[in-house]
Design brief:
single chain; alpha+beta; 3-stranded mixed beta sheet
Amino acid sequence: MLDLRHGVPVHTFGPGVLSVDGHRTAILICHEQLLTLPMLSSLTQHPNLIIAVANDHWAAGPAFPNFSEPPLILAFISAMLGSMTQTPQPSLARQMASQAEFIVNNLKQTDYTYTENIDVDSGVYDCDCSGFVGFVLERAAPDHYAIIPKEANQLRPRAFEYYDFFSSLTPESTGGWRQINFLCDARRGDIIAWRFAEIEEGHDTGHVFFAAETPVIIDSGIFAIRVYDSAAEPHFDDTRGNEDGEFESGVGSGFINFTVDDSGRPVAFQFAPSEDFVTLPIAIGRVELLP
């Protein structure tokens, strides 16, 4: 139980919004309603619901100006709502990508490991690829995350399960997910996964990650996609590495190269500069509004 006698931890690098019954919700408690940083932090993540709670006890007495008058609080909230209505609401997929990007840009420690250790307050993201994708997806789109099948003995769906689920979707499928067949149609926030033919205990089952950008053609028949993921080694032009301030593995962002078949479907990938292209089944999924 949290000991409130000594205050609560500052959540400086945490998300500015939470999912509440499917709504992206900014929660402002007490004097946070009069501070710039909490409001701006929430605004940049495009909430569509605001919950503002206060009992005004902290502002009682002659030492405080009359900041707690309801009209002033309402003015702040009105300004936030005005900003929200003036800014187009990004798609759910782009919101997920933004959360993944925020983690990549603000993490303090990361390592690729099958034993998940994620501490948002400390900026620690020790996890494998499915742990990172599952963590972001569960926070940004919990109802969509719950649809992905997982094994009963696993904390989160593993990479091969994302592939199996995406590849099972048809044009008639409903329920918040759509399969993207052609690599050139992939967009920011889409989830891409491949799987190995044999699933072995204690080994990777494939790989899963967020597309950070639209694919670009770098050579005849070769596409490059910047991704957000947790990986055991850096990709091309990667934030991970051996330089000061870099981490050799774990959560980061870099480019993965792909080839496609005659119809434009992805068929092979080049994971890192030291590796050749590998042919494996690849599937792309995109979140959509739930019915």
